[in-house]
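Protocol step 4 of 6.
Sequence for NAD(P)H dehydrogenase (Ruegeria profundi) entered exactly as in the expression construct, tag removed. Do not edit the line below.
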Amino acid sequence: MQRKKIIILDGHPAESSLSRTFAETYKDAAEKNGHDVRMVHLSEMQFDHDFGQGNYQDFKPLEPVLEQVLQDIEWSDHLVLTTPMWWGGLPAKLKGLIDRMFIPGRTFDTRNISKLGLPAPMLAGRTARVILTSDTPGWFMRLIYRQALIRQVRDQILGFVGFKPTRFTYFAGASYPKPGSVERWVSQVAKIGAAAV
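Step 5 output, structure tokens:
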């Protein structure tokens, strides 16, 4: 088995959450199988998550905590993101982290445009796993919402900067899980973490 360098981002803004439980479960399982793991918790990060009036030529300098996370991503082979779905999207602080940190010259190259008119990704060669919790049933997510958030994260965020493939694990009924559900979910995440996928 190939040893991987893994960065885990617990993307829940609260100190205690299922997202944090899944992040720590994945970390423990991956480390037991010899992988190098770094982990950050969004709840412990202090930064201005408003991109503000900046543009691609004049954006806010990254706070040290954002610079460190970006360096960890650049170091990694594999990114793991644990996050809830809130109002059909990502938590505001997590979206702010992405807005601030995924900047040109570090994650995509606006001077190198493809035939499709898209800037070249600068984080290519990396893979990702997103562990997503929600109260929306899986069938509703697929048929009614057409997996909008999954497509956004996979294609318009992670895929845009080079992560391919991005795999998803989706757990529904997260606010009031049925008896035994959390234990089954943790077991599933442990298996994913052991395989480092």
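Step 6, annotate. The radius of gyration is 17 Å.
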